[in-house]
Amino acid sequence: MLTPLKDKSVLITGGTAGIGLGLARAFARAGARVAISGRSRDKLDAALARLRAEGLNASGHIADVGRPEDVARLLADTATQNGLDVLCCNAGVFPSAPLESMSAEEWDQVQHTNVRGNFLCVQAALPYLRQAEYGRVILTSSITGPVTGYAGWSHYGASKAAQLGFMRSAALELARDAITINAVLPGNVLTEGLRELGEDYLDKMAAAVPLRRLGSVDDIANAALFFASKEAGFITGQTLIVDGGQVLPESLDALAG
Q: How far apart are the first and last CA of the chain?
């Protein structure tokens, strides 16, 4: 059994929908004091309302994680209210664009949030995590990039692979202060964005998973809860793939039977 996270302070970037909102829900249920961030006031207010409707409390902050001034304010405001024990770098964008026609601006947009945002948030969090009983950083990466590829997502795949390169070197520096940093690599997770692609797409993606279903946000949140725990204190610079076995088959034939 894991040590309860009651009264631990958790900041989740990109916490207004999908995996981020699932993380907020899971940490709040575990008794943590939760703060979420997002770029849209309307989406942030809607997410906080959804949590309140479920009897869960969280604070909300407007921030673009790729902007240093936003990040500095976000971390200072969060830590001033509750301190900081766990930072979940979850904010990410995933527009699709063919490599042949992808613009430099489209490339930069993805790196701005997915890579630069991780760097800025972790850097700004360090003074506060050092004061925690045990500091934790958890990155939401992906199987796309580090393990697999997907047409139209070369910029996204590059950003998710870059997250892990950043994590491994950062782990060495953070270890001096007993702060761990690890990454969860989701496969296909059933979120609002995925639902918009239609039932046919969802059925095809589920058929490619050995466990014959798409992941849930709770599946990802459970992995994050473990990385955030006191018991995970000797694990750092590591990745955990949560994909129902999606990356295992060599071919469609391997899924037969």
A: 36
